[in-house]
Amino acid sequence: MSILINKNSRVVTQGITGKTGQFHTRMCREYANGKNCFVAGVNPKKAGEDFEGVPIFATVKDAKEKTGVNVSVIYVPPPFAAAAIWEAVEADLDLVICITEGIPVRDMVEVKDRMKKQNRKTLLVGPNCPGVITPDEIKIGIMPGHIHKKGRIGVVSRSGTLTYEAVGQLMDLGLGQSTCVGTGGDPVNGLKHVDILRMFNDDPETDAVIMVGEIGGSDEETAARVGEGQHEEARRRLHRRRHRAGRQAHGARGRHHFRRQGHGAGEAGSDGGVRDQGHAESGGDGAAAAVGPVARRKAPRTPSRLRRSGKLRSMGRMRRRSRLESPP
After folding, report:
1. Which of 51, 127, 144, 318 is the most buried (most CB within 10 A)?
2. Domain boundary residue among 80, 110, 128?
3. Residues spanned by the domain of 121
4. How remote is the C-alpha of 258 from its chain's centroid?
5. Alpha-carbon Rg of the chain, whole angstroms?
């Protein structure tokens, strides 16, 4: 067994005619059972054509009626990606995996709100995620397939690159994976760590889970509280180990750095920083410690701030004047 996807999944690629969509659809079809799983593409302007034998339809609904797809992967450009997500949700697919990075936050807020209000059954992974892979069966996304092999360790991560690093270290130990899920690093996304942990807990072929987080948001803190009250069922069976990295990212420089990356850490308040996530560590019995507030530091005066204030210019004039007035 596995979670979310398997060799029986039927996949439609939204954005299949773009450069990125073509490349990764080709790579996914060449992996394991990909040729049987990827059965349709969507592009309203190229309906009736095909990509390497994969028929292209005008809408996701048409693709579902003709081919029976139940999973969508999205490579649509950011301005149109939210609409593509909603089109797949309206078609009542089981799962939507959005790879696209840079979708406007407001667009995602609106899509998530509509999904909640209409009580849609579709599960969303991403956006800004590497995708999902069940080794030796199917991969949907941009991860390299050759580094994975079938096993009994689940992997869930917000970071694509760290997902590959975790898989690489597992492979060095001879440990395979049941399913690897990249949940995405955007501030507004679909499935969270706790949702994936519950799925792994219900999977009889997953014995342990590696959970990888990153600065920004409070998903890791929520997952670390597994074992407290409402999350009791999600910790019943799985073995959990934790490692905290990235201590250098906290503080003013870290917040601004990750804001540029789009992780939303600068807006996360007292949750989401490296020091916060350090407080949410598991004890010997798996129970999480309380997350305490982090004292705010005054940001250091950077050269750009000095330049704006005029002090840097004044300092430069003083240096030039001293050189001119100094004796030869």
Report:
1. 127
2. 128
3. 9-128
4. 15
5. 23
Overall size of the chain counted in residues: 328
Is residue 142 domain-shared with residue 290, that is, in the same domain?
yes
Q: Distance between CA atoms of 87 and 16, rounded to whole angstroms?
A: 15
Residue 324, in any domain of the structure? no
> In this structure, is residue 220 part of a structural domain?
yes
The whole-angstrom separation of Cα 301 and Cα 254 is 15
328 residues of the chain, pLDDT tens digit each: 689 999 999 999 999 999 999 999 999 999 999 999 999 999 999 999 999 999 999 999 999 999 999 999 999 999 999 999 999 999 999 999 999 999 999 999 999 999 999 999 999 999 999 999 999 999 999 999 999 999 999 999 998 999 999 999 999 999 999 999 999 989 899 999 999 999 999 999 999 999 988 877 788 888 877 645 444 554 556 666 666 666 665 554 444 444 444 454 434 444 555 545 554 444 444 333 333 343 444 555 555 555 555 655 666 666 666 666 666 5
Q: Hey, what are 311's tokens?
A: 């002090």
Backbone angles phi, psi at 194, to 5 degrees: -65, -40
* Residue tagged 């050759």 (tokens): 146
User: For 175, phi and psi rounded to 5 degrees?
Assistant: -105, 125
State the residue for tokens 């892979």: 133
Residues 98 and 163 in one domain: no
Structure token digits, residue 280: 């949410």
- The per-residue b/e assignment along 299-324, b for 16 or more CB within 10 angstroms, e otherwise, is eeeeeeeeeeeeeeeeeeeeeeeeee
Q: Is residue 313 part of a domain?
A: no
Output the pTM of the full model: 0.78
Quote the Cα angle for 183-125-68, to 5°.
150
Q: Count of domains in the chain?
A: 2
